[in-house]
Amino acid sequence: MPLCLHSFALTYCVLFSLFTSGCSITSLQLYKMFTTIQVGAPSPRSNCLLTVNPLKETELILYGGEFYNGNKTFVYGDLYRYDVEKQEWKLISSPNSPPPRSAHQAVAWKNYLYIYGGEFTSPNQERFHHYKDFWILDLKTNQWEQLNYKGCPSPRSGHRMHVTDLSGRETMCSTAS
Predict the structure, then answer these.
(1) 3-state DSSP assignment of residue 164
(2) Please, what sign has the CA dihedral across residues 117, 140, 107, 74?
């Protein structure tokens, strides 16, 4: 069964407050073309992606989001994995990652995480860019790939995504907000 999500900002805030610790790096592991660094909890943010890893039910995946400190907006493009049992955050760094974004939507399904759309806000909030790009993250290799399909929906943020099985044929859908 596919795992669907909608910006779980509240869930993330609860997790963030429960597991906040310093941002000290305690180990570094290199594997193929990506790096995994054990770190403290990510910085506070909203409009991020937070979902259960379909390959490991005790692991959460966090991607992107934004934070406004009253003067400046920060938009993130970082990817974290959180091991619920060990209470450990890992920062995953991978080439060909999507640009920073918030208010994007995703579906974790089988071995992959699919991301569509979202927005980028300049630090002074004077410029906005809405994405219409479609990305896939291989959850086994941590490799990103941009999918270039014709007929994708218009640029959008704050939308919803889901996967539906239509008599053995899966369909992915992104709806406007």
Answers:
(1) strand
(2) negative
pTM attached to this predicted model: 0.73
- pLDDT, one tens digit per residue, over 17-59 is 323 333 222 333 333 456 778 888 999 999 999 999 999 999 9
Chain position carrying tokens 């970082």 = 78
Dihedrals phi, psi of 9, to nearest 5 degrees: -65, -40
* Sequence-distant (≥ 6) Cβ neighbours of residue 102 within 8 angstroms: 45, 46, 47, 48, 64, 65, 66, 75, 76, 118, 119, 120, 121, 157
Given a cut of 70, is residue 88 above it in pLDDT? yes
Q: In whole angstroms, give the CA distance from residue 109 to residue 53.
A: 9
3-state secondary structure of 14: helix
Query: Which residue's structure tokens are 């290799």?
Result: 141
Say if residues 130 and 156 touch (Cβ distance below 8 Å). Answer: yes
C-alpha–C-alpha distance, residues 24 and 44, integer Å: 16
Token digits of residue 62: 């966090």
Q: Cα 29 from chain centroid? A: 21
